[in-house]
Amino acid sequence: MLNSLTINNIVLIDRLHIDFEDGLCVLSGETGAGKSILMDSLGLAMGGRSERGLVRHGTEQASVTADFHLDAGHDIWPFFAEQGLSHEGHQIILRRTLTPDGRTRAYVNDQPVSISLLRKVGDMLVEIHGQHDERGLLDSAGHRRILDNYGHYGGLSDQVRVSHKNLTRLQAHLQVEEDKLSTARMDEDYIRHNLDELKQLSPEVGQENQLADDRSRMMQGEQMSEGLNDIMSGLLDKNGVDSALRSLSRRLSRMAGQDGGILDPVVDNLDRAAGEISAAISTLEQTLRDMEFNPHELENTEEQLFALRAAARKHQCLADDLLAVMADFEQKLAALDFGDQEVRRLTEEVSIARGDFHTAVAKLTAVRKKASQELDSLVNTELPPLKMEKASFRTELTSLEPSEWGAEGAERVEFLISTNPGAPFGGLIKVASGGELSRFILALKVVLARKTTVPTLVFDEIDRGVGGAVADAVGERLKRLATEAQILVITHSPQVAARAANHWLIEKSEKQAGGDVFTNITVLDNTERQEEIARMLAGAKVTDEARAAAASLMRG
Questions:
Q1: What is the model's pLDDT at position 121?
Q2: What angle do CA 400, 404, 405 make, to 5 degrees?
Q3: Would you place residue 436 in the very low, low, confident or very high pLDDT band (cuts 50, 70, 90)?
Q4: In the predicted structure, residue 148 carries a pLDDT above the cut 80
Q5: Whole-number percent of the chain with pLDDT over 90
Q6: Do residues 207 and 325 share a domain?
Q7: Are 485 and 554 members of one domain?
Q8: Count of CB atoms within 10 A of residue 476's CB?
Q9: Cα–Cα dist 527/513, whole Å
């Protein structure tokens, strides 16, 4: 339960400390006394939204501290262990600070925590039913969440959310892989054609330089061969050196027989020269045979070289990088095969995940139906004491199309009411009058509160719009509820206040005339309670009749 609440520098509150008790705790006061500030302060301690305007003017920091004591078996202790939060005994102290510039800090048992963690802890300790949260009850979009919170399905809701998330993730992954595969298929023919071209070309690292060198050598050999053939022709032609030298040698030989041997040395020299020429011709002929030029070989070499360079230009790379281009094409084709396998694998996983999701959804639907029937029965039990004997409440579950199933399950949930037997059921806001609507909402809130495991329930003016016997019935319902949990009620109803086990009065005062205004809270004894309830009955001027009526209400 909530043991105490300490508030410092929150709007009209300078310093306020409240020690609460178990049972039905009522807080009353005139409009504008600061009851809403008290609720805002408690909300801050629970991790609620903070605003700069909450810090009292002229102060440097505001703070709210809520002190709780819980049983040893409460669900919060395993959560503390999971989050690494320390505690001594069974006490939990939540603290929140706020500065004028909007900075805020949160603490659990003086251990700094995030606001989100403070909110999670607060949600396990206090449940606030505010005068404005009826808007959530009127909006059918929130009815499914309300029913699920009431149902406590043992993790089935989480199972549906997790299985839906898994299915959605796998479907998205499958779509990505299918898109990738489809794009790859569009390029498959191009890839295969180019890969075949490169395989026929059989590129190798250094091949371009080798072919270029071979081509250059062959072209140089062709030019040399042509020159040597010209020289050979000059040597062997009938007017060439060899023929002329042999002719001259023959003439000198004929003349040598007539000169008495004078020309013999010349003849010998010419013969030797002819022999050298003949040897040169033989060597030249052998050289020409050895370097015989093959124009087809040059043509083939040039074709390979030009094809290699054309492929490099086509793929915008160096000739030496064509092997890498081939490897990339082969990898893409392999990816196509892998893509087929991946799509098949993911398709199977999606099918399994869809089955898991549908199974979880079916289980959730079943327990929702059971919870809705239980909720209907309990709410309808609460209506007669609220002077709505002829009214009826029903939770309608509308099945969605499978394509509409999501993380919240397979049905739409809406709370419907009928104010008279035979009258059609309709939405809360469409069917009920103002007073009827308040009583329907009150009956629903009381039932929802009875199912919660939260130790402290706060009702902020939920009795608004009702009075007389109906208000008395509301007070009785809250008193019964207080046997199961600590109940804090902010009320303007004297009938509700009369049922309280403990009563606090919230007032606004000035420390000095014309000075700052402050909010104060006072615990009332029986005499003071009677006076306050009389004020709630009569207004500003309290009469003896009002006091007598207050005493009668307090006696029950």
A1: 94
A2: 80
A3: confident
A4: yes
A5: 41
A6: yes
A7: no
A8: 15
A9: 29
Measure the CA–CA gap between 236 and 244, rounded to whole angstroms: 10
Give SS3 for 427. Answer: strand
Q: Which domain holds residue 235?
A: 180-337
Q: Within a domain: residue 242?
A: yes
Does residue 513 have a pLDDT over 60? no
CA 385 to chain centroid: 47
Domain co-membership, 484 together with 532 = no
59 and 190, same domain (yes or no): no
Closest CA to 164 of 366, 361, 351, 362: 361
Sign of CA dihedral 210, 211, 216, 221: positive
Any domain includes 316 = yes
CA angle at 111 for the pair 105 and 112, rounded to the nearest 5°: 30
Q: pTM for the whole thing?
A: 0.63
**66 pairs with which residues across the strands?**
5, 94
Verify that 223 and 257 share a domain, yes or no.
yes
Number of domains, the chain: 3
Residues 480 and 552 placed together within one structural domain of the fold: no
Q: DSSP label at 409?
A: B
* Res 268: pLDDT: 79
Same domain for 242 and 304, yes or no, is yes
Write down the mean pLDDT value for the chain: 86
Vertex 104 angle, CA 103 and 106, to 5°:
160
What does the block give as tokens for 31? 């409009």
